[in-house]
Write a structure and sequence with these properties.
The chain is of the alpha/beta class. It contains 12 helices and 10 strands. The chain has a single domain, classed as Rossmann fold. The longest helix is centred in the last third of the chain and has 14 residues. It starts with a helix and ends in a 5-residue tail after the last strand.
């Protein structure tokens, strides 16, 4: 049975995500916060790697990176991106955490995979056993601007509020129960989503909202024309974010 990640990440959603990453400073911000531990690492395991937001820049500075990603569309995009950059030191494992055995790495990293870093999740207990030097977790932090206007759109189009997701506080609480006192660095970055035109933007919101129909399309076209920012090459949904970069040294690390 396909995983939820496999069902969610279609090829078109992956392409949209990649286009946002191309103009984002996310990797620079996160890896900058991890610099104290990266300096001594040669290998990394990126769990829930997606299309390589962190895998690829890590591979440009480390000897090898293993990227674990269960969604076929994401895993294939990551393989293609690594090949395009000439990175032969990236191994893509198309599987979810816990599905296949994994060798130890200097750094074990998990970014924005909530189900792996919430209270009770096995990853926080198991990852240190595979980390020679450190474990790192990246979670959303603080009050962000409305993600793609969902707090406005869900009540108006879906008839229900857009539920809040968890953030890094629950991860810190869980780590405390495990006796871990991590280093925490908050970083700000841009994750603007570009579109060629308003019709593509409407496609995006229909896909993410799971809604179709002439009335929905007409509403979105008018709504987005007022919310998006025009650019010479199209339109963009401005999106500022903040993340908590959480890391702790593995037992016995120098």
């Amino acid at each position: 049975m396909p995983s939820r990640a496999a069902e969610f990440w279609t090829e078109r959603k992956v392409r949209w995500y990649q286009r946002a990453l191309e103009r984002s400073d996310y990797a620079v911000a996160v890896l900058g916060a991890l610099e104290p531990i990266l300096a001594g690492c040669r290998t990394a395991l990126d769990v829930g790697a997606g299309c390589g937001a962190l895998t690829l820049p890590l591979a440009e500075r480390l000897e090898c990176v293993t990227a674990m990603e269960p969604a076929p569309a994401m895993a294939e995009a990551l393989r293609e991106a690594a090949a395009a950059r000439g990175l032969g030191n990236v191994e893509v494992v198309e599987a979810a955490w816990g599905d296949v055995p994994v060798e130890p790495h200097d750094l074990v990293l998990c970014a924005h995979v909530g189900e792996l870093t919430r209270p009770g999740a096995a990853f926080l207990r198991e990852a240190p056993r595979l980390a020679r030097r450190a474990v790192a977790v990246i979670r959303d932090a603080g009050q962000e601007n409305d993600k793609f206007f969902f707090r406005e759109l869900y009540p108006r189009l879906c008839g229900r509020p857009y539920g809040p997701g968890g953030d890094y506080a629950e991860t810190l609480d869980e780590l405390a129960t495990l006796g871990v006192s991590p280093t925490v660095r908050l970083v700000a970055y841009r994750s603007d989503q570009p579109f060629e035109d308003l019709e593509e933007a409407c496609d995006f919101w229909e896909e993410y909202l799971g809604l179709r129909g002439d009335e929905v399309r007409s509403f979105l076209r008018q709504f987005l024309a007022q919310r998006l920012t025009p650019e010479p090459a199209g339109w963009v949904a401005p999106y500022s974010k903040q993340a908590a970069v959480i890391w702790w040294a593995a037992a016995g690390a120098a």
